[in-house]
Amino acid sequence: SFPADAVPQAPEDPLFGLMAAYRADDFDKKVDLGIGAYRDDNAKPWVLPVVKKADEILRSDPALNHEYLPIAGLATFTAAAAKLILGADSPALTEKRTSSTQTISGTGALHLGALFLSKFFPGHPTVYFSNPTWANHHQIFSNVSMPIASYPYFSKSTKGLDFEGMKQAIADAPERSIIVLHACAHNPTGVDPTQSQWKELAVLLREKSHFPFFDCAYQGFASGDLAKDAWAVRYFVEQGFEMCIAQSFAKNFGLYGERAGCFHFVTGPGADAQSTIGRIASQLTILQRSEISNPPAYGARIAGLVMNDEALFKEWEQNLKTMAGRIIDMRKSLRSKLEEMGTPGTWNHITDQIGMFSFTGLTEKQVLKLREVSHVYMTKNGRISMAGLNTHNIDYFAKAVDKVVR
Ligand code: PMP
């Protein structure tokens, strides 16, 4: 029989463990900079006004029911999702060589992509992640028995991109490796390649016939501009790459728990592209059927409604600007407070970095001391969720940092 008593204890998820510790702390000035979820200036979750509106429209529809979605998801949602990331006039869409499958948010998209590649990508390739990366990447690809490795990404000295190290590792990887790239607002570092660096990366990937897998969890959330945040993906499509894209609507719609996401496979241009994508789509359907049968409806209905309605779409863009703008303000404010106090070290990286997170450069020892002395909660690698800062706690946080680095 199955020796159930031999199952070892698994470690607690570090992030969700941190959240529990924060909740258990009853200090009134405690600060939560752990989880990557947007908070308003009062440290409260924010339901986007456009999401509220879409929700009311959906609920007032007498024809709304709870039937299953098709296996590949809500077609109006997946088509709009593809347009959003690729651009409406993308050759990958006009040439009908994209297959889009609705998934359980970004995580589900990564999983479906990983599962598909593990079955159909010839030669048992290694999957390369940035070091560091979103920790779940390792688990998702290991779970489908793909070998994993990493490329340098973050430079401890500049607190920016280690571009030379990154290029070297990608050049040294065996031909036809899978390279996972964060489309924008890299998690956990907040450091993105510049457009000219992306262009160099494209040349390098092409030379080695590597396969890009874009993880896009923050489109519109990083800069406040949907097209700008999709630039790298669109550039690689323009260059004729075949690729996977995992797309999350958790952050940019604030639909975290509704699990709205999409997986896109884009084939390269060519006469056979349409028949190739048809076969790929058929396999994705089989995989999806055995994994989740069909995806959850509600978040996709909300996001789909907004993306397909011109007025709602415009309102969404405003909501994105509100979120991205508040975070950019917090970056400026934190940097200037630290610089005003003469806090040891350089702090330009706080405003150079982009998106939800900042890699502060604080050491694990300092992070633990901040938690103990000042009740400030962040991950041990020194990452802070910028959304956890607001006009009420930023002064307290800056002073706590100043104290701990002196
Ligand atoms: N990739 C990255 C880099 C992320 O930061 C996240 C969210 N933390 C995801 C994927 C997926 O998140 P979700 O499944 O909630 O869409």
TrEMBL record:
GO molecular function annotation: L-aspartate:2-oxoglutarate aminotransferase activity; pyridoxal phosphate binding
Any one biological process term the GO annotation gives: aspartate biosynthetic process
GO cellular component, one term: cytosol
Main EC class the enzyme belongs to: transferase
Source taxon at top rank: Eukaryota
PROSITE patterns referenced in this protein's UniProt entry, alphabetically: AA_TRANSFER_CLASS_1
InterPro entries: Aminotransferase_I/II_large, Asp_trans, NHTrfase_class1_PyrdxlP-BS, PyrdxlP-dep_Trfase, PyrdxlP-dep_Trfase_major, PyrdxlP-dep_Trfase_small
Alphabetic keyword roster: Aminotransferase, Pyridoxal phosphate, Transferase
Enzyme Commission designation: 2.6.1.1
Miscellaneous comment in the UniProt entry for this protein: In eukaryotes there are cytoplasmic, mitochondrial and chloroplastic isozymes.
Family to which this protein belongs: Belongs to the class-I pyridoxal-phosphate-dependent aminotransferase family.
Name of this chain's protein: Aspartate aminotransferase
Organism from which the protein derives: Mollisia scopiformis (Conifer needle endophyte fungus)
